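re: that complex we talked abt at group meeting.

here r the seqs, copy pasted straight from the sheet so there may be weird spacing, ignore it
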Amino acid sequence: MKKGKILINVNDIIGKRLGKLEVICYVGHRYTMTKGGPRVRHYYACKCDCDRMAIIQRGPLKNNLYHSCGCARRKAE
Ligand SMILES: [Zn+2]
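got the structure back, here u go
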């Protein structure tokens, strides 16, 4: 482990399927400023059933807020 900079196991959701999305790989992290100070966000490359790739943040991904690259939302239910 390198200096414990990333405290979570970022690979734990690799290969998982979330709706139409399959998590392909961990892309990296970046710091964003929030009201509470800088926060680290982790990003993943996901492949959608429609063959498009999407870069999605770990938090919303794990909370099942994304089920597709955006194509599913356009379809009427
Ligand atoms: Zn799609």
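couple things i noticed - The chain has a mean pLDDT of 88. The two ends are 46 Å apart (CA to CA).
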